[in-house]
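Risk register update: the risk of archive-format incompatibility is retired. Evidence:
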Amino acid sequence: MPVSEVVGVYDADGGLLGEAAYVWGKVRGTRHCGLCDITHATVRRKREWDEMVATLPVPVRLLHLNELDDGLRAAVAATGAPVVLARDAGAWHQVVGARELDAMEGSVRALEAAVRLHLDEDRPA
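Archived output:
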């Protein structure tokens, strides 16, 4: 069954306190999230990210650790965060893990290539 959705999960909590804790940890050198580096510039989301997502054939959501439903929480518990997951046939599976996200060094195009490759592999022959 083809992928119906892609979700990126940040290694951080959302909301004012979660965001502030992440920024403080990043400044101190104790926190890092490769997905954050790909989707965000210094303070706001990269325009390049929004443009790329608009061209993908499936919906893409970005979530924080405290925004996950039970199914996503279980998937992230198994993979770790940050992570990019895809859902097909109701199950979540990893597309790109934390090490790969770090290796992309903030490149939207590198993540796009990985997601498109996964979507192409999942397409029926």
